[in-house]
Structure formats: C-alpha cells, structure tokens
Design goal:
single chain, two-stranded antiparallel sheet, Transposase for IS2404
C-alpha cells in the first residue's frame, strides 16, 4: 500500500489470511476488502466515542438498528459539512435544538 502525504511517501506491506483462493480474489480485491473492514471499524469508533454507543441499553427488536441508522445519519451529515470534531459538534447541537434545524436546512 502506497501512502503519499506532505512530501513524504511510504510503502506498507500488508499480509492477509483468507480462505479465498487466488481465482476467487486477486490481491487488489483482498486489499479492497481489508480497506472496507477498517472503514467500518473507523465508523464504529466514531459512533462509540461520539454517542457512547457501547453503553446503549437498547437490545431488543428494531431499536438497536434504528439507533445505529440515526447515528450514522448524524455522522454523515456532519462529515458532509466537514465538521472537524464530530463529538464536540454533537454536544453543541444537543444543547440547542434550533441549531439542529438550521444545520438540516429546515
């Protein structure tokens, strides 16, 4: 994997273990699967840090999935607005409901 940032280039070697054969997945496809996994982990990290999701007591029915969808929506909106600190923005929005409507353009 090649990383380029601010005049610095680094090359990283990634080793993956998979039950897929070479015919089922090329190295490029395996790398994409790996990147997708870490993208999901990054989202879960943001959800837990911003919403303290691991302590949520909703466990039955559709509530856990519905809450996850709402949290993902909130994070996505803030990312689209290029908010640098999602947790701080959520605290600010929680303190002022009218600000939520303004952010949503309502």
């Amino acid at each position: 994997m090649l990383h380029i940032s601010q005049n610095k280039t680094t090359l990283e070697t990634v080793y993956l273990i998979s039950s897929l054969t070479r015919a089922q997945a090329s190295p490029e496809q395996l790398l994409e699967l790996n990147r997708g996994h870490w993208g999901i982990e990054a989202l879960h990290h943001v959800r837990d840090r911003a919403f303290d999701e691991d302590r949520c007591r909703a466990r039955k029915g559709h509530a856990p999935r519905a809450l996850a969808c709402l949290r993902n929506f909130a994070i996505s909106v803030l990312r689209l607005l290029k908010v640098p600190n999602i947790a701080a923005a959520l605290r600010e929005l929680a303190a002022d409901a009218s600000l939520v409507l303004k952010v949503l353009g309502v």
